[in-house]
Amino acid sequence: MSTEKSQARPQAGAGPGALLLCRADPESVAQAAHPLRERALLTRAGDDWSVLVPEGKPWVHDGEPVDRVLTGWATALAVGAPWPVLALWWDADRAGYILASGFRRPVGYVWLTDGTPAGEDEAMRTFAARLGLDPVLDLQSLDQLTRPDPEADARARLRGLLAVLTRAGVALSAGLSPGEPADRLREAARVQPDARQVEWAGLRDAIRAELDAVDSSRLGPWMPWSGTLRARAVALAQLAAGLPLTVRGLRRRSGGWVVAGALLLAHGGLGLVCEVVRPRD
């Protein structure tokens, strides 16, 4: 697939912007995004995707490069969630993407404003593998984005990337296009029927959102507060292992054994306490 020709090249001095694509429904994304402490508009971006449009401009007010800010945001979102996060970003000199998934190192690619590739080909292969894209058809299309093309600028490169992702279910609404001014992106997101605002609501709500996000992940049934049979079994096993370790440490005057036993007792006790005091939904 040849990269889509640009119809409006980004001008020198154009303002930076960003989009955060999450492979999850808006409700799950809203829960995970609260701890970012950033105001954003959230809307659906396909059957299995959602998009966050930042309302603030930390890369302007705090002087941080937009790609560095987006790397931090994408990593923070992905670490606490069982789904990947794809950040698209652009400024006056470059444009690119960052893909974060779990605890793995983020992968990204960069193009100069005129579309000149400035990344590593291996990044595209890793990108395709982590998103489960077709290793032949999609990878060939992505490979085209790493080759020189005088007809494609950075904005067209990002559009080409999104064209590949349509086969993975991504469908951005009209106006949510890479290279658009931040104000236009916010307006395009705000008029969507399912648009909602995500913002920092205080430490208590952020902790609750983090717990809810973990509950919805694969680890949820094993966590102390889940109230499941598996969580109770883990709590009892920790108490059973922690008590003899603590006694052994006290008898031998070993601080290491005492600490290990105390931690197991504390965690196991927390699980049983949560079982009693946590309200049922």
Characterise the protein shown here.
The protein has helices at residues 26-33, 58-61, 66-79, 121-130, 137-144, 154-165, 182-190, 203-215, 229-252, 255-277; strands at residues 17-22, 40-44, 50-54, 85-90, 94-100, 107-112, 196-198. The radius of gyration is 23 Å and the shape is elongated. Helices cover 44% and strands 14% of the residues. The longest helix has 24 residues, at 229-252. The chain contains ten helices and seven strands. Strands 6-5-4-1-3-2-7 form a seven-stranded antiparallel β-sheet, with helices on both faces. The chain folds into two domains: 17-203, no CATH class; 219-277. A hairpin with a 3-residue loop joins strand 4 and strand 5 (94-100). Helix 1 packs across helix 8, helix 4 (121-130) runs antiparallel to helix 5 and helix 9 packs antiparallel against helix 10. The chain starts with 16 loop residues before the first strand and ends with a helix. With 281 residues, the protein is α+β, with helices and mostly antiparallel strands.
